Amino acid sequence: MTNSKKEKVTPPAVLNGEGHKRTCQVSAVKTTHPLAPASPGYSQIQILDPEDDFPDGNYELTVDGREFSASLCLCSGPGHTRGRGVAGHAEELEGHLK
User: Fold this and answer.
1) How far is 23 from 95, CA to CA, in rounded Å?
2) Which of 69, 89, 90, 94 is most buried when burial is the number of CB atoms within 10 A of its CB?
3) DSSP string covering 10-39, please?
4) Are 86 and 74 within 8 A, CB to CB?
């Protein structure tokens, strides 16, 4: 039996959309399967350097060559500190990898 390896990583990423584009640092859980080490999966993605003047909206977040859709919003309230962040979770865009 082969087990997938999960690790917390902080890869660079690119946030693009709403007429804006910038590099950013993200935190994510990277899952690598021993039979497909060149195709890791990413989950629990969070932008670590969220301060910018980007408007709320829908963006593409590219991490390690994989594209994810994300909604950027000004988050505040219970459990959140006021600042920019990805609302909900980033979802991989199947079939749209570059």
Assistant:
1) 23
2) 90
3) --EEEEEETTEEEEEEEEEEEEE-TT-TTS
4) no
Per-chain mean pLDDT for the chain: 76
Nearest C-alpha neighbor of 8 from the set 60, 45, 38: 45
Q: Quick one: pLDDT at residue 45?
A: 84
pLDDT at 92: 55
CA-closest candidate to residue 7, choices 69, 35, 87, 33: 33
> Of 36, 53, 40, which Cα lies nearest the Cα of 11?
40
The Cα–Cα gap between 94 and 91 comes to 9
Q: Which of 7, 80, 53 is nearest to 88 (CA)?
A: 80
pTM: 0.70
Under a CB-based contact definition with an 8 Å cutoff, are residues 32 and 55 in contact?
no
